[in-house]
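tool_call: predict_structure(chain=1)
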Amino acid sequence: MDHIFEHYKKTGYFHHAHVLEGEHEVLVPMILSAVHQHFGIVAQGNPDVTVVHHESFGIDEARGLKEAETRAAFGGTRKIFIVSADSFTREAQNALLKTFEEPTEGTHFFIVIPRVDAIIATLKSRVVLVPATANKGSDDTALLAKKFLDASLEERFAMAKKLADGKDREAVRRMLDHIERILYTRLAGQKNTGDVFRDIYQTKTYLADRGSSVKMLLENLAIGLSAVSL
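tool_result:
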């Protein structure tokens, strides 16, 4: 997922519309995680972040999205729309052509569908297509993330030492990405969970400093995770 933000990190420009191929259960948490990491936007309780799923995205849904897009942001400078659908009708795609070509400033769309080849050519020219092959992560670090979350505090400390001894900061960063994605699903609906996401964000930020202690960063995160019900 982070690869679609690479250009933004280098130039400050981020395309207003991405269409991602794959399962919404997998991709939506990844998008939420990336939006938080790269834009600093927390989705929970944020009126400027819209997340919806439709079995079929038709003309009525397209009109609703167009109307929502024209409204001013409540508090931030960006509005995020994450829309997943099992199918996306041709009429709906045609209705969104102008919206995807000239959205209001600071608006970003993430459309998740099972197959990007279902998108009509005129809409393809207005979006960035992200095929399924570009969204696959590391199975090893995904399993490691789940193990870290499900472990006791003592076990997390042991894992932190082992990961620090391995001296692979990139693998630790990928694990943190997976932890964040898993938590967006596990903590959905819970209140007062913002601190744990800030802890993950800070951990990844300090991890980029080669002089920081990986062991201490992961131990601090392990303690922070103990404050929420997983």
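agent: The two ends are 24 Å apart (CA to CA). Proceeding to next step.
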